[in-house]
Amino acid sequence: MADVNVRCGFRALVVVFAIVSGALLILWATASSFAPKPTRCFDRERPLVIAHQGGDGLRPGNTLTAFAHAVSLGVDVLEMDAHQTRDGVVVLMHDATVDRTTDGRGALVEMDFAQVLQLDAAYHWPFDESAPFRGQGIRVPALEEVLTQFAGQRFNIEIKQVQPSMGSALCSLLREHNVLGQVLVASFHRQAMQDFRGACPEVATSGHRYEVARFVALEAIGLTGLIGLEAVALQLPLQQYGIELTSADRLDAAQRLGLHVDAWTLNDAKTIESAFLRGVNGVISDRPDVALTVRQRLNRSADH
């Protein structure tokens, strides 16, 4: 879920927020109270198992094949990445271009949906020359197909595209399919998140990178009461740039604020177990089968 810009900017953001946060003490009395938006994404068994791209370690990511397989495993949430084509269709792909995953080339924003439909979305997966799903008709789906085919599921939709803004188009789809209460929308990009929140204030969102940096900095100096986030969730790596983002103290602080905390992207049993035991609310994984097995084993142990 990380990109180069996020990695480059995160440490600087934490430092800046830590330096200026002292001046924000004058806002203590008027700091806005946190008011979580309702979402059924969090009403499943805890901790949640969230299938990253539908489980990209098991099936070609961001495809109907991956989502169907994840549902058959019994995952709690389907995670996916959203872009918009030139003719306005919201489609699911991790990258801004089709080069890495398909047999085509080009940027999604410069392609019509009809062109995207011609691509083999499993052409390179799992990127080791084996390509077991190549040529089997697996294609890049429109988000609308997923919302229709898996209508009863919970969805974690990450907005990857910043320009042109796709906030209104995404909101319209969620409203049309009546899934507003079972969705968490995420984005690392502040502008993309602001655009979506402006268009769809009734939908729960997770923190963009500036909000994450603000939380980490203010928690470090004991001023979490000044955070005033619009987000209901934080989705974080366990550690980044030497900063422990999911320490027990940070998890406690987030959960006292009513924030749901998911850790990404965890794929081996030992790391997943460690995250579950430290108290994260959910794990985003390319291997949801492993995460489900670990959760089941820990639950059995807790019952004895």
Tell me what the structure shows.
The longest helix has 17 residues, at 4-20. Helix 1 (4-20) runs parallel beside helix 7 (209-220) and helix 9 crosses helix 10 (288-303). The two termini are 37 Å apart. The radius of gyration is 19 Å and the shape is globular. The protein is α/β, with parallel strands linked by helices and 304 residues long. Strands 1, 2, 3, 4, 5, 6, 7, 10 and 11 form a 9-stranded mixed sheet that branches. It has a two-stranded antiparallel ribbon with strand order 8-9. It has a single domain (4-80, 154-303), classed as Alpha-Beta Barrel (TIM Barrel). Helix content is 35%, strand content 15%. Strand 8 (239-240) and strand 9 (243-244) form a beta hairpin.
